[in-house]
Amino acid sequence: MTIKNIITVLTIFLSGFCYAGTSTKVDFNFDWKFSKPAGFVPQDTLFLSPDIKWEDVCLPHDWSISEGYTKTQTAGSNGFLPGGVGIYMKNFLTSDDMNGKKVFIHFEGVYNNSKVWINGHLLGFRPNGYVGFEYELTQYLKPKGSMNTITVCVDRRAYADSRWYVGAGIYRNVSLILRNELYIPSDGIFVTTPQVGNRSMVNVVCEVKNAGTGVKGVTVKHEVVYDGKTIASVSDDFVALKGDFNEFTASVELENCHLWSLETPSMYELHTTLIASDGYVMDKKTTKFGIRNIKFDADEGFLLNGKSVKIKGVNIHHDLGCMGVAAYDDALLRRLLKLRSIGCNAIRTAHNPHSESLLEMCDSLGLLVMNEFIDEWKVAKKKWITERAKEDAPDSISIGYTRYFDTHAEHDLKSFIRRDRNHPCVILWSIGNEIEWTYPYYWASSKDNKGFKGLIHTGDPETDNKSILKEFNRLSGGKDDLAETAAVLAGWVKDVDTTRPVSSGVVVPSVSRLSGYTDVLDVVGYNYKDKYYEIDHKLYPYQPIIGSENVGQLFEWTAVADKKYIAGIFVWTGFDYLGENGPWPARGGDCSFFDFVGNKTARGHFFECLWKDTPKTHIVTIPEKESEFKMDADGSFTYTPRPGWIRRWEWYDTRDKWKYRRDEDILVQVYTNAPEVELFLNGKSLGTKKRSDFMEHNILMWKVAYKEGTLLAVGKDGDRILSKDTLSTSGKPCRLALNCDRKTATDNGYDLIHVEVSIEDKEGNTVVDIPSDVRIILDDKLELAGLDNGSPSIEDLNINVINNSVRTYNGKCLFVLRTIRGKKGTSFVKVVGDGGIQGRCKILISHPISH
C-alpha cells in the first residue's frame, strides 16, 4: 500500500464551457543531477565549475546514508555518517501548460541550509531542514520552449548539528505548481468541527490570493464528500482584493456523521472551487478532514469523542534505517503498521516535523500524533564526536538552527502548524523537547538533576518548592529567557490553531512548574519523570499531564495504567534509530520495539502483551551466568541490574534461540498476557507458573538445564489454552527463506519491496548462530535501495556495495528494492549466501492505471 498525494490536471465543465484552468501539481522528483564538489563553499552568487562531475539521482535523496559509515569527519551523535556540501541541478522546459500561469516550486524538506536558484537567480535561503517551503519562478522563466535550470545547494558542513541522524539533501518530495492569478495558496484551507456528534458543524476558512491587476469577484464553493458522495455544499460570492491573501469563511451542518476514531478512522473530503465572475473555474482543491472531538482533562486524562482513551504511544525519529531519511512512503507505512500491530495507538514526532505522508497515514490508520516542532530554541545542546558526554563537538560543526531561531522560528513554526492543522490524528502541538538542558539555572536548581549522569531521571520528587524557587532566582538572576520564549512560541501556535492544546517535553518539572514555563502549556509533557505524576497532580490539579518520553520498561506503564488522570505515555522508541550513540562502531540506539530492519525485539513482544488483549505468549532465553536474574535456593529469582545510567533505557539480555552447551543452566523467560503458563521441553512439562507471582517484572521464569530439542510455552486460563510459542534447536543452514512484503508493484519509481531474508535449517528453524554474507542478484526491473541486518554495530553489517551483500545478524537481513520508471514485467530476485545456500522470489511489476 502506498499513500501519495499526486494531483492530476483536472478538466472542469461549467455551464457547458470547458476550461482546463485549475491549479496543477506536477511531480518534480525525477531526472536530477547531484554532485559534492570538493572544497565548494556556498555563496549567494552561483558559480559551478564546468569540471564538476554529476551523477543521476531521483528524489527523495539522502546522500549521507548513500556514502556509508566512516570515522572521518563524522560524529557518534549523527551515526558516523558524513555531511558536507551537496548540489542538485535539474533542467526543464518552459511548456505550453505554463503559459499565463503562476509557476511555483515546492520543497517538502531539504536538510539543510538550502539555497535555491532558477536560471542563476537566487530565490532564497532556508536554514530549517524539516519545514516545507516554496518559491515563485514565473518572472525568471525563459520563453516557451526554452530550457530552465533549477539549482539547489545544501550546506551540511556542520555534520554534528543534531543529537541524532538527520541525513543530508533533498530528502522529501519536490513539486512544480501551476496556478492562475486567482488561487488558493498552499495550506490555505482550514477545516474545524466545533460541534461534533451525530449532527456536526463544519467551519471552513479559505484563503484566496489575487495576483491579478485589480479587484476580482469570486464565488467560493465548498462541497463535503463522504465515501465518494456529496452530502452537503455551501457557496458564497466575495470580492478578492488585489495582492492580498483574502480570507473567506463558511459553515455547513452535517447529519448522521461518521466520527474519526482509533477503531474507525472515518475521513471526509472538502472540495473547494474558486469560480471567477466570468464563470471560469480558477482553482480547485481537495482537503481531507475528520470529525472528532478531543479533550485533555486534569482528572480524566485524554478523551476522544467523549470516551476515555489511554495513550499507548511511541517516539520515532524520521530516519528509515538503511533508507536514511529519504522519505519513501512504503518504508514509513511498513513501520506504522508494525507499531499498530503491537497495540501502539499514538506517535510522537521526535523532535521535528516529519513528512506530510506520516500524518496522512496516521489519519487513515487511526493513530494519534503528538506533533513536535523542535529540539533546541535559542541555545544549542551538546553534541559529541565519539560518544555521549565525551569529546563534545566544537561549535563550528555542532551549532545548527539555533543561530537562526530569532529570525526564522516564527515563520517556520506557523508554516508547520498550517501544514498539519487539518489532520484529525494530531491531538497535541509540542513546542520543544527537554529545553531545560540548555539553561543551566534550570537543572542546577533541582537536587535530582545534578548533571547528565548520576541521579538524573531517577531522583525522588522534590517538594521543597520554596528552596527550589530561591535557588532558581539566585542562579537566573531574575531573568528567565526559557519561560519567555515558551510563551512566545505558544502564542504563535495559537495564532494559527486554537483547536488543539500546546505541550512540550519537560524534563525538570520541579523547576519548570515554578518558573512559569509550564504556565503557558495546556498539557504538560513529562520526560522520564514518572515519580512526579502523583505529587504534581495534587500540587497542580488544574493541568493535564502526559508522559511525553518514557523508557520502555514495565514501571513506566504501571505508573499510568491505573491512573485516570495521566493521559498515557510515549515510549522511547518505536524503532531503532541512527545516531545519538557511540563510540564506534555503535551507529544507533538499541532501545526499541523494532530494530533497524523491522524485526520485533524482546521489548516489543513484552509490550504487545501489555498493550493488546489478543492472547500472546513469547519465549526468550539467556544463560544464567549472563543474566541479571539469578535463581535463589527457594526457586524465586533475584534481579541485580547492571551498573550505569544508560541501563534504564536498555532491555534485559535475551536471545531468540534454543541452542547452548549441554546441561548449561539457561533462564527461560516467557512474556504473556495469559494468567499462567506451562512450559514443556521435548514434550515433558517443566511446571506451570502464574503471572501474578512475577508481577515485579511481569516475566515468568524457569531455570532449565539445556537439552537439544524444542521448548513449548502454553499460555492458559485454567484448562483453557489461550496461546502458544515454541523455540527449537536449529541445525545446519539449508536455505535462505524470503519474505516479501508485496508480490506486485508498479513501475512508478517509488514502490518499494522489502525482502526479509532468514537462514533456515531443513526443519524451517531460523539459524541465528551461524552468520552468512548474503548477496542479492537483480534484473533490470528493480534496483537496490538499501540493505541492513538490524544490528546496532557498524562492524556487524559487513556491507559490500560492489556485490550488493550484507552479513546476517541473528540469522536475518533485509534488502529494500525499488521499482524503476517504465520497467514493467516479472522481476526475478535471487539471494545467495555462504556455502551456496539460496532463495528466490518474483515480483510482478505493472504500469500504474491512469485516472
Main pleated-sheet profile: 8 strands, parallel, barrel
Structural classification: mainly beta
In total, the number of strands is 53
The CATH architecture classification of the largest domain is Alpha-Beta Barrel
Strand content: 35-45%
Share of helix, binned: 10-25%
Q: Tell me the count of domains.
A: 5
Q: State mean pLDDT (0 to 100 scale).
A: 94
Largest sheet, spatial ordering of strands: 26-27-28-31-32-33-34-35
Classify the fold: give the CATH topology of the largest domain. TIM Barrel
CATH superfamily of the largest domain: Glycosidases
Distance between the termini: 18 Å
Radius of gyration: 28 Å
Question: Can you walk me through this structure?
Answer:
The structure is a single chain. The protein has 851 residues and is mainly β. It has five domains: 12-183, Jelly Rolls (Sandwich); 197-289, Immunoglobulin-like; 332-591, TIM Barrel; 613-728, Immunoglobulin-like, CATH 2.60.40.10; 735-846, Immunoglobulins (Immunoglobulin-like, Sandwich), CATH 2.60.40. 14% of the residues lie in helices and 37% in strands. The chain has 13 helices and 53 strands. The strands form 14 sheets. It has an eight-stranded parallel β-barrel with strand order 26-27-28-31-32-33-34-35. α2 runs parallel beside α3 and α7 packs across α9. The protein starts with 11 loop residues before the first strand and ends in a 5-residue tail after the last strand.
Question: How is the topology of this model organized?
Answer:
Blueprint: E1 12-14, E2 17-19, E3 24-27, E4 32-35, E5 55-57, H1 63-67, E6 84-93, E7 102-107, E8 110-111, E9 114-118, E10 121-126, E11 133-136, E12 147-156, E13 169-170, E14 174-179, E15 182-183, E16 189-195, E17 200-210, E18 216-226, E19 229-240, E20 245-254, E21 268-276, E22 281-289, E23 294-297, E24 301-304, E25 307-308, E26 311-316, H2 329-341, E27 346-349, H3 356-365, E28 368-372, E29 384-387, E30 390-392, H4 395-398, H5 405-420, E31 426-433, H6 440-443, H7 465-476, H8 481-496, E32 502-506, H9 509-515, E33 524-527, H10 533-539, E34 545-551, H11 554-561, E35 566-572, H12 602-611, E36 617-623, E37 629-631, E38 637-639, E39 665-672, E40 676-681, E41 684-690, E42 700-705, E43 710-717, E44 720-728, E45 735-740, E46 744-746, E47 752-760, E48 773-777, E49 782-788, H13 794-797, E50 805-807, E51 812-819, E52 825-832, E53 838-846
Parallel strand pairs: 26-27, 26-35, 27-28, 28-31, 31-32, 32-33, 33-34, 34-35, 46-53
Antiparallel strand pairs: 1-2, 3-14, 4-5, 4-6, 6-12, 7-11, 7-14, 8-13, 9-10, 9-12, 15-17, 16-17, 17-20, 18-19, 18-21, 21-22, 23-24, 24-25, 29-30, 36-39, 37-38, 39-42, 40-41, 40-43, 43-44, 45-47, 47-51, 48-50, 48-52, 49-51, 52-53
Helix pairs in contact: 2-3, 5-8, 7-9
